Prior knowledge:
Number of strands: 11
Shape: globular
Strand order of the largest sheet: 1-2-3-9-5-7
Strand content: 25-35%
Number of helices: 3
Largest sheet: 6 strands, antiparallel
Order of helices and strands: HHEEEEEEEEEEEH
Amino acid sequence: MATEAIIPEALEEEQGKPKPRTMTAPPSSAYKIVDVPELYGDLIKARGVEGTYISTSEEESPWVPFGDGAAIRHLAFDVRNNSYCNILWIKAPGVIGTHKHKGMVWAVCLEGNFRYLEYDWVCKPGEFITEFPGTAHTLVTDNPEGMKALFWMQGVNEFYDDQGNFVEALDVWWFMNHYESYCREKGIEPNKQLYL
């Protein structure tokens, strides 16, 4: 007499257990806050960190000059991970000097376009790039309107002059000082929401 093999899903259904689901879209479109069970809710409430929000207002984060014809709008400083997020604005065709990354970099072009002299692509609005530790780049924009791009960086960026001589290392502390020095100069209270 032949017997049929019982597959695990069929066995679960026979025992009244739900069949495993695969999500193809978020499970609810309800426009409400859902109370989600959390095993460590009290600990998260006591020791966790809330997310931050930075609007487009320059009162929350001003454009800070970054050399001639460029500025940075600082969005986040994470001293635990030596990470920082900002928007770089090159206001007309120009260059940001050659720099070598000692950590990861992620970027999304917001306006205009930019490229690196070392590569053959041009990053346009909505496009995404990743840069890896150990590589050196020379960022340029040939666009008459310049460019804006969101950068999330980790670690140190070492800048070099046009002869390949080391000039300065920029890390989370450098970017914090860049922001706070400008705030002091302009009488602006630093925005606590920038500090993760």
